[in-house]
Amino acid sequence: MSRSAEPALVANARMYAVNPAVRAAWTELFGWVSAASGLALEVIDHAAPAPLDELWRRGDLGLAFICGYPFASGGFPVQPVVAPVPASALGAGRPLYASHLVVRAESGLATLAESFGGRLGWTVEHSQSGFNALRSHLLPYRRAGASLYAGSVGPLVTPRRVIEALLAGEIDIGPLDSYFHDLLLAHEPETAARLRIVETTAPRPIPLLVASEGVQPAIVGKLRGALLAASGDAVTAPLLARLRLSGFAAVEREAYGVLLDDAREAEAAGYVMPG
Fold it and tell me: CA dist 55 to 17, 26, 63, 155, Å?
């Protein structure tokens, strides 16, 4: 298929570029999408500590991951393309994920309650997996009058920094995006083996791939169509396996409203920061 004469749109998978091998898999997938859709996509780097909100405000986004919480809040000029469907059992074939609350593998902590009194890590306030889900999961304990954490450490910004802080003994427990963990198990098992899941939060809509608000509907439709067809393509089958995905699903902004409901419930109870 011939490429469009339109200027190239940019693509970025930083949120789930767990390591160089996974980043390369995303780059290959974006290249396949470009060929299948006939649209020019330029894969760009936007590595931490560059703020993700700078990426989400670009006017030339074709495909970039955004967390569902800021997406639902409507503070960024983006429109949905598709959401990934993890191959793990957690989402039961739907575009869902959760937060694993993890400790060091050798930690003596066996339950979440046993971590109370320790140090809790969190990523950034606009994160669902690293902040909002964590706060919602702890809310019932707070309402019951439990004494939670002696210290709250953040913003750690990324799941990788949560892992590093945990392994360095800077925190005792922290949240880890379940799909990030899937990729870690597959591509960095030696790191995954140093972590142990204590509890997992309720499944919620997963971060999605978005385009800039000004991208024409016909272009978004081509990108969406290519990704929805990826699960049935022989070329992409190995790529999806490497990315631990069963495919992609079309999503609407309204599906992410539950994340705002969760946040409002916590804030109405006076629980602003996790800890």
Answer: 15, 17, 11, 19
**Is-contact 37 216, C-beta < 8 A?**
no
Distance from CA of residue 261 to its chain's centroid?
19
Res. 6: pLDDT tops 70: no
Range with the poorest average pLDDT among 23-27, 50-54, 125-129, 220-224: 50-54
Reduced 3-state DSSP string for 240-254: HHHCCEEEEECCCHH
* Terminal C-alpha separation, the chain: 53
Q: How far is 69 from 247, CA to CA, in rounded Å? A: 22
Q: Which of these, 11, 42, 29, 90, lies nearest to 242 by C-alpha position?
A: 29
Residue whose tokens read 């890590």: 121
Cα separation, 97 vs 202, in Å, equals: 8
Residue with tokens 């109870």: 269
Write down the pLDDT at residue 37: 97
CA angle 111, 187, 169 (to 5 degrees): 40
Q: Each residue of 63-87: pLDDT tens digit?
A: 999 999 999 999 899 999 999 999 9
Q: Which of 132, 128, 192 is nearest to 163 (CA)?
A: 192
Average pLDDT over the chain reads 95
Q: Which pTM was predicted?
A: 0.95
Residue 183 structure tokens: 């990729």
Q: What is the chain's alpha carbon radius of gyration, rounded to the nearest angstrom? A: 19
Q: Give me 165's structure tokens.
A: 């802080």
Q: Provide the residue count of the chain.
A: 275
